Amino acid sequence: MYIKRNISWGIILRYAWKNIIFFFIYTAIIFSLYHFFELKFIDIPFQPLSVIGIAVAFYIGFKNSQSYDRFWEGRKIWGGIVNYSRTWANQVLSLVNEDYETKKILIYRHIAWINALRIQLRQPNSFSIKENTAVEKLFDKHGEKNPAYDATKAFISDEEYQDLIKRKNPATHLVKNQALHLKDLLSSQKITEFDKQLFHRTLEEFYNLQGKCERIKNTPFPRQYAYFSTVFTWIFVLLLPFGLLNVFENEVSDMSQHLQPWFIFLIIPLSVLVSWIFTTMEKIGSNSEDPFEGRINDVPMTALCRTIEIDLRDMLDEKELPEKIKPKDNILY
């Protein structure tokens, strides 16, 4: 998640440089054919092009709105994970009549769960967005492509860790292990049946929150909206220089002779600017479709996991707590 108030032009250019160069060359070629090679027939009326532009703007606006809803839902889900994590630790510390080590195991296993879930959600799938090399270099994956069980090693026993290696969904099994541990505590009368019910309601909520994350992760933004938004945007920006030829031709004819040569050349930067604006609006929506990819606009799950870890270990009265995750290049992962 980008945390600086204004996005730096360095990041903007990482996304836009290829398109800007393409638009400049493309427009310059069309302008040269029209102005220097006298191919006057290639211009088109701007009126129908403006109708296309309005329709594309509405379409992009709808896509961006729905994409933001996916991001905001993901952020709310992780807000729920933060809150219920504190609830879990509070229940463990206040309801379990057992030694400190047992309480630590239950709380540390939960820390393992949030980190396993985080890495599972960040695994790329077939519809993950692909950026250019300059953008990809900006995103150091921080080991997020490693198997999910790797993030749990520091928080669970070696025996439990070896069992997770064989599992396809480690996060699911960690919550299951919590339930089995509670069953043992009930058998040894370390908790009451009522306490167990309270714990299981919290575990049920963890499964609900995990399932909501997996629903967003495994359900792509409807491709008919995502794909045709891109297609319609590029149809518009590719036709734009032809329409501007017509506009500038009409304007130049009404100008004085000494201004005409300079004014006509404005078609190139103007066309590049309008094309960049439309393609950027479209890309904003595309980058918000999947909020768990670990990119510039995504939910900062690494930072949230660390926040939960600090809170829970502090509730255990530990003295050596990890530091909060700090942003890199103004991006909080």
Describe the structure.
- The radius of gyration is 27 Å and the shape is elongated.
- With 333 residues, the chain is mostly helical.
- It has helices at residues 9-35, 46-95, 100-121, 133-138, 158-165, 170-187, 193-218, 223-252, 260-264, 267-287, 301-315.
Provide the helix percentage: 55-70%
Specify the overall morphology: elongated
| Assembly level | single chain
Largest sheet: none
How much of the sequence is in beta strands? under 5%
Low-confidence stretches: none
Question: Total strand count, please?
Answer: 0
Sequence-ordered SSE layout with sheet pairings:
Elements (H helix, E strand, L loop, with lengths): L8 H27 L10 H50 L4 H22 L11 H6 L19 H8 L4 H18 L5 H26 L4 H30 L7 H5 L2 H21 L13 H15 L18
List keywords for this structure.
single chain; 333 residues; mainly alpha; 11 helices; 0% strand; elongated
Give me a quick take on this structure:
With 333 residues, the chain is mostly helical. Helix content is 68%, strand content 0%.
